[in-house]
Amino acid sequence: MAALEIAERRLGSVTVVELRGRLLADDGDTSFTTRITALVAFGQTSLLVDLGRVTYIDSGGIGALVSMFLHITRRGGRLKLLRPSDRVRRVLEMTRLIDVFEIFVDEDAALRSFSRPSPLPELARRLTA
User: Fold this and answer.
1) How many CA within 13 A on the CB side of residue 6?
2) What pLDDT sits at residue 2?
3) Phi/psi at 18 (nearest 5 deg)?
4) pLDDT class for 120, splitting at 50, 70, 90?
5) 49 within 8 A of 61, measured Cβ to Cβ
6) Which residues touch 28 (CB under 8 Å, ≥6 apart)?
7) Which end of the chain is less enclosed by CB atoms within 10 A, N or C?
8) Hey, where are the domains in the chain?
């Protein structure tokens, strides 16, 4: 099983975090949460997580996404998702988290969305309260 690969790049005030492979947390892989927590600690609180190359996600991976969403939101930042693979989208739908995250299929549209205030969806507001 290949480890999760994480690449990041800055586009203006937004950090795009590109994931490739399996997003798991149950097997002790904390690289995703460690990387996101470090970015936030360095003041990068506008994050776009590209899930287009995530081949598998388990409950721990979903938990990691939610945990980092809450971590950033409580600090006044925003975490949005880009291009979730079909598999990831199905899991987000099954867990009803599709209504929590702002999800984009186009990177340019996602980047533009950070310049506008975006009210949290109701479910997300309840999670961060």
Assistant:
1) 17
2) 62
3) -100, 125
4) low
5) no
6) none
7) C
8) 5-128
**pLDDT tens, residue by residue, 56-94:** 998 889 999 999 999 999 898 999 999 999 989 999 999
Q: Please say whether the beta carbons of 48 and 82 come within 8 A.
A: yes
Cβ atoms of residues 51 and 18 within 8 Å: no
Q: 5-128 architecture in CATH?
A: 2-Layer Sandwich (3.30)
Query: Which residue bears the tokens 């460690």?
Result: 34
CA–CA separation, 10 and 72 (whole Å)? 17
H-helix segments, the chain = 31-41, 59-73, 86-94, 107-113, 122-128
Query: What are the two backbone dihedrals, phi and then psi, of residue 76, each rounded to the nearest 5 degrees?
Result: 85, 10
